[in-house]
Design brief:
The complex is a heterodimer of chains A (about 130) and B (about 375).
Chain A: H1 4-9, H2 11-16, E1 18-22, E2 28-29, E3 44-48, E4 52-61, E5 74-81, E6 86-91, E7 104-115, E8 120-129
Chain B: E1 4-10, H1 22-37, E2 44-48, H2 52-56, H3 61-68, E3 76-79, H4 85-98, E4 105-112, H5 118-126, H6 141-156, H7 160-174, H8 188-192, E5 196-198, E6 201-202, E7 211-220, H9 221-224, E8 232-241, H10 256-269, E9 278-280, H11 286-295, H12 326-330, H13 334-350, E10 363-370, E11 375-383
Parallel strand pairs in B: 2-3, 2-4, 9-10
Antiparallel strand pairs in B: 1-7, 1-8, 4-7, 5-6, 8-11, 10-11
Helix pairs in contact in B: 4-13, 7-11
Classes of the chains: A mainly beta (about 130), B alpha/beta (about 375).
């Protein structure tokens, strides 16, 4: 479970969707990287994630990790955003029967789970159908 | 570089070993390997373990196990690359013998997974995924492979029944392996009616939580030839990495690390996929076996599911896969799995595989994988 500093450190990505873009080959990275794995260059410009995309694949988690017990069953998918970034997150506000590969979704800021012992509310992004 | 051979192997029965400690489980298997090789001392050892810290709260295990194996002060090294730790232990041992640094090296693997609750075991296994960008969002290991399965079904038309056949085939083989955790057969219906874990994967698509260890002794081929056992030569070794976050891959259905590791091993061994007689692969989930066969070049990309319709990979098929029962039926003590695969290859090549013995095999391959494919280790073996 995240300690306060570990949680705080990820806030730029989880709250503000901050990414970076390789100045040489234009690939957007999320989370931001220090070296481009494609061209090995180290110059980047700051950017933010495109907030719309489509589902590449999904599953329904029925046996969850402990901190997600009160949410199961829930859907998790990999979504390809319009800027080419692919990321894993829950897909919510949607009946499981309506989920399908190719479905258009958008990124929203939501609560992810409660950290039981210290009572930290852990926030981040989830996908909802457009 | 010197040629290297496996000269001794050892493994005790796997399962929920309540009465046995972490150190005893390892030492029992390692002693069997020393006895099989006919040696009582070694120059060095490598131990694969994914997460002894989270499973039994014990780190510094390379020294602990060397001590209880009666071999201190030899150098002993722990190796970790998630569920491929055992395979990587063999590769590092191979490099040490091939380089001339040591003559007799023990390579082993261990995981004791039942000293913690199911929740804690799930957490420990989940640490092989990207904690900040996968685990944080509630994805589990069955969930990650379910994402691969759904994408593979959509892209290539792989069916739910084809996935079930992977588990049916591995249990059929495992029923013939007295050391397997679940030595019994299952049916397609029982897989399709087992409880859903992460759609479309059900309980019987998943490998179990297991306590177990495995060990092998490797020596230079010229030394092996003076010993009494058949010489099983390590022809090729390969090891590669990929993003540990599944979402970062160009193609979610393709195991690039396995493809790259296999390419290295084939090139070193000067062999092609069609030269391989049988394979042990990392079937942590049914879909994994299908994707691995594609990445190894045994079947065409996208055709992995179809291979199960005509029983190509069954014990009597053209290229038997997981004659041991695989991770599914034999069990999956994660750090030990890669070494246990080697044991099955050696037993088959020596003709010591009992009821599951295949006819006169000459060349076998083992593929061991970490996480959702973030690492992969491949070895090719030949009976001299």
């Amino acid at each position: 479970m995240p300690t306060p500093s570990r949680y705080w450190r990820e806030i730029p990505q989880r709250y503000r969707f901050e990414a970076n873009k390789c100045k040489n080959c234009g690939i957007v990275f999320f989370p931001p990287r220090l070296i481009c794995p494609e061209c090995k260059k180290r110059e980047f410009e700051e950017t933010k994630l495109a907030e719309k995309g489509k589902i590449l694949t999904y599953t329904i988690i029925r046996v969850p990790p402990r901190q997600f017990v009160d949410q199961a069953p829930y859907a998790v998918g990999i979504v390809e955003l319009d800027d080419g970034v692919k990321l894993t997150a829950q897909i919510v506000d949607c009946d499981f029967e309506d989920l399908k590969i190719g479905l258009k979704v958008k990124l929203e800021f939501r609560k992810i789970f409660d950290e039981g012992e210290a009572g930290i509310l852990c926030y981040g992004y989830k996908f909802v159908p457009e | 570089m010197r040629d290297v051979a496996v000269i001794g192997v050892g493994m005790t029965k796997w399962g929920e070993l309540w009465e046995k400690s972490f150190r005893d489980i390892f030492v029992e298997s390692a002693l069997l390997a020393l006895d099989d090789a006919g040696v009582d001392r070694i120059d060095s050892m490598y131990v694969g373990s994914m997460s002894s810290g989270l499973f039994v709260g014990q780190e510094h295990i390379a020294s602990l196990l060397a001590d209880y194996l009666g071999q201190a002060p030899i150098p002993s090294t722990r190796v970790e690359t998630a569920c491929a730790s055992g395979g990587l232990a063999l590769r590092l041992g191979f490099m040490e013998v091939a380089s001339g640094m040591s003559d007799v090296v023990l390579v082993g693997g261990i995981e004791k997974m039942t000293d913690v609750s199911g929740d804690e075991a799930t957490y420990a296994l989940g640490s092989a995924a990207d904690q900040e960008y996968e685990g944080y969002h509630g994805i589990t290991f069955p969930g990650l492979y379910a994402l691969i399965a759904r994408a593979h079904m959509e892209k290539y038309g792989t069916t739910r029944e084809q996935l079930a056949l992977v588990a049916v085939k591995n249990h059929k083989n495992g029923a013939k392996n007295p050391l397997a955790q679940f030595p019994f057969e299952i049916t397609v219906d029982s897989v399709l009616n087992s409880v859903m874990i992460a759609d479309p994967l059900r309980l019987l698509d998943c490998s179990p939580i297991t306590d177990g260890a495995a060990a092998a002794v490797i020596v230079p081929v010229e030394v092996a030839k003076k010993m009494k056992k058949p010489v099983i030569k390590i022809l090729g070794t390969g090891h590669a990495t990929d993003t540990i976050a599944l979402s970062s891959r160009k193609d979610i259905t393709w195991l690039e690390s396995t493809y790259q590791a296999a390419k290295q091993a084939y090139d070193m061994a000067d062999k092609k996929p069609e030269d391989i007689n049988f394979i042990e692969v990392h079937d942590c989930f049914t879909i994994a076996e299908i994707c691995v066969l594609e990445a190894l070049g045994i079947v065409e990309k996208g055709k992995g599911g179809e291979a199960y319709e005509d029983e190509l990979t069954f014990l009597e098929g053209k290229i038997p896969v997981n004659t041991s029962g695989g991770l599914k039926a034999k069990g999956h003590p994660v750090g030990a799995t890669g070494v246990a695969q080697v044991i099955e290859i050696v037993k088959q090549l020596r003709g010591e595989a009992g009821k599951r013995q295949i006819k006169d095999p000459r060349i076998g391959m083992a593929q061991n994988m970490g996480g959702s494919g973030g690492s992969s280790v491949v070895h090719i073996f030949e009976r001299e």
